[in-house]
Amino acid sequence: MLEVLHRPELARFLGRAQRDEVLELVTAAAVWVEPAVAVTDCRDAKDNKYLELALASGAAAIVSSDDDLLVLDPWRGGVRILRPATYLAQP
Prior knowledge:
Elements: H1 2-5, H2 16-29, H3 48-57, E1 61-63, H4 67-70, E2 80-82, H5 84-89
């Protein structure tokens, strides 16, 4: 996450202090899990890490705009993979 927050394209939207604040908030609220099962379900191999984390954490949903993940919805035991707007529109 630290790498993503420091990408140059984000500098247009978030200053350094704001990026540090976001990192602090996410770190404080995060639940840290270590995936125990390798997943190879996604057609884009670098996205399998998100599926592994969802499986390890018992997530009910993955929120993403990535088409390689979205085509898997619902994934395995019913894990929903939803666009951000769709997720936010749920009751």
